């Protein structure tokens, strides 16, 4: 994002809290919001709205005001870009910059994970809305249609964050809950208990060069059924 907050940011009906969805209860709130906004307001059919991608490789963000769910969005992860989608705010809560706060969180999360490119499919009349987050129309690409609406691809390319997660980050940091990498998580606490044993005793005692003793008993690799991809 370009860092410029809309001047009327302060007129929000209350502090907006955005979090990564990690519980079924929060997920249920997302479903309720999207049913209300996309299915009821925008007449989107159920199986187009709930398209099979919600539980497969997606991160969801939920916005609440005073404990009431008011908005949500979804981020999906690809090789070198993340895609923001399904962004919506309850009608009564619009124009209070909740959309802005959610997008700010999403772009922050995406960049912290080391991504620089953020892709969106913007409804044609909302291209200007996306532009203020730094996601600009890909003019070389055609408009396309789904769920009875015309869309443009919009793309933001952001500078690499210095604190982006990478391969050599402390392993326990990578194991923390999504988006909460700066505070100890459940595995940090379990690490404090220490290791009970490094290796089971039976594995230590098998010193034969090919592990043939074990293979003889079970018939070895050749004797086993082949695994097939289905
Ligand atoms: C788009 C949406 C998420 C914005 O949420 P929000 O919390 O109201 O967003 P903000 O308060 O941060 O920004 C509002 C601004 O977005 C722009 N905007 C929002 N909806 C717009 C629309 N339908 N047409 C044109 N501009 C729009 C306007 O500039 C508006 O400013 P204004 O309120 O001062 O006129 C919300 O309108 C929504 O849920 N729409 C229905 C779902 C949807 O279409 N999602 C986008 C899919 S691409």
Automatic annotation (TrEMBL):
<feature type="domain" description="N-acetyltransferase">
    <location>
        <begin position="16"/>
        <end position="151"/>
    </location>
</feature>
<dbReference type="InterPro" id="IPR016181">
    <property type="entry name" value="Acyl_CoA_acyltransferase"/>
</dbReference>
<dbReference type="GO" id="GO:0016747">
    <property type="term" value="F:acyltransferase activity, transferring groups other than amino-acyl groups"/>
</dbReference>
<dbReference type="InterPro" id="IPR000182">
    <property type="entry name" value="GNAT_dom"/>
</dbReference>
<feature type="region of interest" description="Disordered">
    <location>
        <begin position="180"/>
        <end position="230"/>
    </location>
</feature>
<protein>
    <submittedName>
        <fullName>GNAT family N-acetyltransferase</fullName>
    </submittedName>
</protein>
<dbReference type="Pfam" id="PF00583">
    <property type="entry name" value="Acetyltransf_1"/>
</dbReference>
<keyword id="KW-0808">Transferase</keyword>
<feature type="compositionally biased region" description="Gly residues">
    <location>
        <begin position="213"/>
        <end position="222"/>
    </location>
</feature>
